[in-house]
Specification:
mainly alpha; 15 helices
């Protein structure tokens, strides 16, 4: 009897604890389970509504867009057509600007990634006079607004003959993208174990080989994140392109803004042009989203 009573006495608090925990666990499982997934799904669908609406609008005729909203296609699917995209391909202003956007974005992204990686490694692991002061200067450039540099750099580019060209737009984006690139990659490279680099040096690896064979593979997630940030910023930029490009070097953002001025005459090219301008960076982001998440979370768990 005593043993049985003792078991009952010990079991009572345990049952009470289990009862208390079961309520919290049920709430936690409900939040982290189906309820949270449904909520996130609804948020994602709500976030995609403008994109879906733009896609459906780009597949409608101008008279249909003027008469009703894009949701009308669900009741009248016959409104869907690719005529707007065919007309878009015949619009040389839009197609040329799309090519210009690629010619601006790709070099500006690659140069920032390459130069930022080299500079980040140098600031992290190479000794040279004034290294810390130089790095503080780079960090200080992060707070310089783009608007402050537009006029003086425009005058400089005019004197050297690259104002209004694709080269001038690329140089501006590279110059303002490098401080963030150096800051990000230097902090990431500094977390690489020193023993790993010393072991590679003992094996006879020079600085360049050490950078290519050891640092670059380990810094892949951070470099991919930087590339995505830079690509999205340059692709979607309009302020710099408005100032430093002309009619022959303008990107898609400026071309669409120019088309908006004539909205009544070319409404059929605005929707497909805007959708193409938006879907390409979205495709790049989703293609490298795993590397992007790895780069953002790098260093969060030791």
């Amino acid at each position: 009897m005593t043993t049985h009573a003792g078991r009952l006495t010990k079991a009572a608090p345990v049952a009470a604890v289990k009862t208390k925990q079961s309520l919290g666990s049920r709430l936690a499982s409900g939040v982290s389970g189906g309820v949270l997934r449904v909520f996130l799904l609804l948020v994602g669908l709500f976030w995609l509504v403008p994109t879906i609406g733009l896609l459906l609008s780009s597949l409608r005729k101008p008279e249909d867009m003027s008469a009703s909203g894009w949701w009308k296609v669900f009741s009248e699917p016959s409104q869907l057509t690719v005529d707007s995209y065919q007309k878009l391909l015949e619009n040389s202003d839009i197609t040329d600007s799309l090519v210009n956007t690629v010619l601006i974005t790709v070099p500006a992204t690659l140069l920032v990634v390459v130069i930022g990686s080299l500079a980040g490694y140098a600031f992290a692991w190479m000794e040279f006079p004034g290294r810390d002061w130089w790095f503080l200067g780079v960090v200080g450039l992060l707070v310089v607004p783009v608007q402050v540099a537009l006029i003086p750099i425009a005058e400089l580019f005019g004197k050297i003959g690259i104002f209004g060209s694709i080269t001038g737009v690329v140089f501006f984006h590279v110059g303002f993208g490098l401080p963030f690139a150096v800051f990000l990659l230097r902090n990431f490279f500094a977390e690489i174990p020193r023993e790993l680099l010393e072991a590679a040096r003992l094996d006879g690896a020079g600085e360049l080989r050490l950078f290519v064979r050891v640092v670059m593979p380990l810094g892949g997630p951070a470099i991919a994140s930087l590339g995505i940030f830079q690509f999205l910023w340059v692709w979607n930029d309009m302020l710099v392109a408005l100032v430093f490009s002309d009619s022959g070097s303008q990107p898609i953002t400026v071309a669409l803004q120019t088309q908006v001025r004539q909205f009544g005459n070319n409404i059929d090219v605005l929707a497909p042009g805007a959708f193409i301008s938006m879907v390409i960076p979205l495709a790049v982001f989703f293609a490298f989203q795993r590397q992007f998440v790895s780069g953002v979370m790098a260093g969060a768990v030791k």
